[in-house]
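# nightly structure sweep
# worker-07 picked up a monomer target from the shared queue
# config: single-sequence mode, recycle default, output format = C-alpha cells
# input follows
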Amino acid sequence: MNPLFQTFTTPYTTAPFSKIKNEHFKPAIENGITEAKNDIDAITSSSETPTFQNTIEALEYSGMQLKRVTSVFFNLNSAETNDEIQKIAQEVSPLLSDFGNDIRLNLDLFKRVKAVYAIKDSLDLTAEQNTLLNNQYKMFVRNGANLNEEDKQILRTIDKELSKLSLKFGENSLAETNEFELLITDENQLKGLPEGVKEAAQLSAKQKEKEGWLFTLDYPSYIPFMTYTEDRPLREKMSKAFGAKSFKNNEYDNQQIVLDIVNSRHQRANLLGYDTHAHFVLEERMAQRPEKVLDFLNELLPKAKPAALREFKQLSSFAEKDGITTFQKWDSGFYSEKLKKELFDFDEEQLKPYFKLENVLDGVFTIANKLFDLKFEEIKNIDRYHKDVMTFKVTDHDDNFISIFYADFFPRKGKRNGAWMTSYKDQWKIDGENSRPHISIVCNFTKPTETKPSLLTFNEVTTLFHEFGHALHGMLADTTYPSLSGTNVHWDFVELPSQVLENWCYEKEALDLFARHYETNQPIPMELIQKIKDSSTFLEGIATMRQISFGLLDMKWHGSESPEEIKNVKEFENKAFSETQLYPDVPENCMSTSFSHIFQGGYSSGYYSYKWAEVLDADAFEYFKEQGIFNKSIAEKFKNSILSKGGTENPSILYKRFRGKEPNSEALLKRAGLLK
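# output follows
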C-alpha cells in the first residue's frame, strides 16, 4: 500500500506525510516515470495531425503524479532530510535526469511540437498558449533536440553527472554546518550576548545533554553570536568555521565538486552551441545576455563603492578605539551593531520584544488581507512532515478556496540553512476546474526558549515578509498551465513579489498592525519606528557591494570561456573579488565551496537577479507610496498584472502593464541613500 502510487485522497489532496515512508519514494518515482512515459507514448503514437491540444497541452499535463511525488520528496530532502533520504536522492536523481532527457531528446515528440510551432501564427492562440508553445519548442532546442545521436548521449551523461554533483554539494555543505559546535562552559566568555541568546544556547546544550552554552553555524545561533559577543577570539573562531565550510580537504570538501560543476555546465553549453553557461542561462532571463548583466553590476559598482569605502573606514576607525588595528570580517557584525547604537541610539535587541513570531505572522496575514482580500485559518485536519510545521487554509473575501499554506520556522538537524518558499502542488486549470496550489515557506528563525516565545530580529521579520511575498506569488496564481503558474517566471523577475513586500516592514501604518510588545501588548513606540527608518540605509554601501561581489563571482564562474584552466578555487575566487574586496582575505576561508545558491539552487548565472529585482521592487513600491501603501486599486493591479499571471507573458510586458512605464533605478538608489 504505497500512498504515492495514486492521487491523494486527503483533504484538499494534500500530501499524506504520516502515511509516507522513506521506502515508498523510489518505487513511486519509478512508477511515476513509467506512467509519464506512457503519456508521452500516447502523444507520439497518435495518428492524428499534431495540434495544440493533442500535442502541446497533452505534453504539459503529462506525468502529473510524478511531479507531485518528486515535489514532496525533494522538498523533504531540503526541510526534513536524513541519511536514508539523501541516499535515495542520489539513486533517483540519475533516473529523473535520464527521464528528462528521454523527453527532451525524443525526436518523434519534437517533430510533433515542431509541427505545431511551424503553424503557430495561424492558430489564434492566447498569450498564455503562445508562451507555452514557445517554451516547449525552446525546451527541446535548448536541451539538444537538434543534436546528432552521439552528442545526445554525451548530453545525457553530463546531465546525469550534474544532478549527482549538485546533490553532493548540498549534502557536504549541510554536513559541515551540522558538524561544527562551539560549547562554552565559562560564562565570562558570553559577555555582550543578550539574555535571550544565552538562554537559547543553554537550551541547545541541554537538548544535546551537555553542560554550558552551545552555538552552531545555523543562522539563528551564528548571527547573534557574531553581532554581540565581546570575545574577539571566539568571534574569529566562529567566523572562520563558517567561512571554511566544505573547504577543509576532508570528506565534505567541495572544491573539486565546484570545478566539476562549472566544467560540466560549460561543456553542456558548448555542446548546445552557446559560448558559456551564462549565455545559455541568460537567453531565458530578462537580462538576455552576460554583457547586460555585467553592465548592470558595473553600473552599480561605482555608485556603491565610494559609500562602501567610507563606511568601511568609519567602522575601522570606530573599532580602533578598542585597539583593533586590522579590521576583520569577524569584527563586522559586532562593530556595525555598536556603531548603529551610537549613531541612532538604536539596538536591535530593543525591537525583538515587539516581534513575537505569532504576531508577525498575523501581521503579514493582515497585510495580505488588506491588499488582496485573503483570509488565513489555521487548520489541523491535514498532515505535517514535522510537528513544528503550521498549516493554514487560505480563502478570499467570498470564502472561495485559494490555497493551502505550510509554515516551517525553526532550525533542526535535517533542515538546510537559510529561508525559502516552495510548492507541494502548483495551480492549474483543467476540464473547467481551477486546481489550487499548496505553498510552503521554510525558515530558520530564533526558537522559543523555556521562558520566552520566539522573538524575531528585524532581519528575521523582513525575511518572513520576503518569503511570504514569494508565497503570495504562488497562492494567487491563476493560470491554465502548471508550468507557467506562480513563481514559474524568469529568474530575474521571481524576486520582485518577495522583495517588494519587505517594504511594508518599514512603514508605520503596517507596523502598527502587528508590532506589539509580547508581554504588555503595547504598540511599538513611534521613536523606534523612526529609528528603523533612519537606520534602514545604515552601511547600505557595504551591503550593496556585497551583493555585487556575489553577482560578479557567479558571472566569473559561469561566464568563463575556458573554465578547464581554473585549477584553484580559492585563487579564482580572490581574483573575482578583487574589485569589491573590503576586508583582508582569510586564507582558510572560501565562499564558493558553500555558495549553494549557484551550485545547488537555481541561481547559476542568476545571482545578479537580487539587485535586478531591487530596481523593480523600489520602483513598484514607489507607486504604492504615491497612492497609499494599502491602496486597493494599486494592489489589484499588482495582483492582476503580476501575481496571478505567473510566467504567462514576458515579465517586461507584465511589469509595464502594472506600472504604466519602464522601471527606473532612481527609486532604488534613492532608497539606498546612494543617490547624490
